[in-house]
Amino acid sequence: MNGTTRQAIAVGALGFAQTLAWGSTYYLPAILAGPMARELGVPTGMAFAAFSAALVVAALLGPFAGRYIDRFGGRDVLTLSNLIFAAGLALLGAAQGTTLLFAAWLVIGAGMAVGLYEAAFSTLTRLYGHEARGAITGVTLIAGFASTVCWPASAWLEGEFGWRMACFVWAAAHIVIGLPLNRLLVPATALQAAIASKKQASSAPPPAPAGQNAAMALLAFVFAATWFTSTTMAAHLPGLLRESGAAPATAIVAAALVGPAQVAGRLLEFGFLRRFHPLLSARLAAVAHPLGALVILGAGAPAAMVFAALHGAGNGVLTIAKGTLPLAIFGPDGYGFRQGLLMVPARFAQAGAPFLFALLMERYGASALLLTAALGAASFAALLLLNPSTKVEHV
């Protein structure tokens, strides 16, 4: 089996494993938070608060997971994530009150730290170094269908068997499907490479090159701003479109365009845009949401589908940029730890995004989009300050 075939198998395995990981955790509250809260006798906001707590845990543990992947590779970490996800989902399905509800989501949050895109991207970078861009894009192409596949699956399971059984089924899927994919089809890092990396990681790090701290700060802001918008739209898009004047059926149809638009944007990145520095892709993607917001705020309901398509395409490309920009600017050395650090502000932004935007929608309606449009514009400006000809090679 040649290297290209082995890489294709690894990308396919990670893509399907990531689809399961995202669909059974990050996208779960959108379907199950309501039924869960009703049976437990708590406000729906309490279920989302537990989910926010999971994101905080993921933020705090992410750098440690990244450092481990830098030293030893990611196969064991990703395999561990399936066990943690399974335990957390099983605990969630058995929850009888708020204590176990929060405990379950805290466990799931630990799984997020070691089992979502950051860990997958770090694993690919550990395996393929500077050549990981195409592999990262390939994984996101497959996992881009997580909501498209898992939302209907969760809804069907909840409708037929209840939310508890839905949690148990997703827990079993991590053992039966996710774990074998990560353990058996993701290559182990070569022993010599691991030894060399371990020696490098244990030695004193070189002084930070000029401009690295500024570049890290700019990327951290971009990731936090774009994850805030992504999480906000995932939680509120149908309601936001209704606030803009769209009929309920139109809002649902338009919101459903986000998934295909994300994949279309990633196909563009995988095909045409891969010839260019990923900064170009990120800059184009950063202006997509603000442009869509201006269109729908100006035209109202008739522009609902245009807005959803622009947001989806931009978000799809920005997801890839979160993996490829640190690689292109800083190189593969220390990628996992750096990725974990960059995502700390983003996870905190995610944790507060649904609640904050709900307050803004309640007060300002569709005009709340001015906030996410402004964040998109600020992200574009930050990306303009990054120079594609400047590359830092060390942590």
SS-derived structural category: mainly alpha
Low-confidence parts: 191-208
Strand content: under 5%
The CATH topology annotation of the largest domain reads as Growth Hormone, Chain: A
- Return the CATH architecture of the largest domain: Up-down Bundle
Q: Cα-atom Rg, whole angstroms? A: 20 Å
Helix content: over 70%
Q: Please outline the major beta sheet.
A: none
Membrane topology: Multi-pass membrane protein
Transmembrane segments: 45-65, 77-95, 101-120, 132-155, 215-237, 249-268, 280-299, 366-386
Subcellular location: Cell membrane
Protein name: MFS transporter
Describe the 3D structure.
The structure is a single chain. With 395 residues, this protein is mostly helical. The protein folds into 2 domains: 200 residues, MFS general substrate transporter like domains (Growth Hormone, Chain: A), CATH 1.20.1250; 173 residues, Up-down Bundle (Growth Hormone, Chain: A), CATH 1.20.1250. 81% of the residues lie in helices and 0% in strands. It has 18 helices and no strands. Helix 11 packs antiparallel against helix 16. The longest helix has 32 residues. It is globular, with a radius of gyration of 20 Å. About 5% of the residues have low confidence.
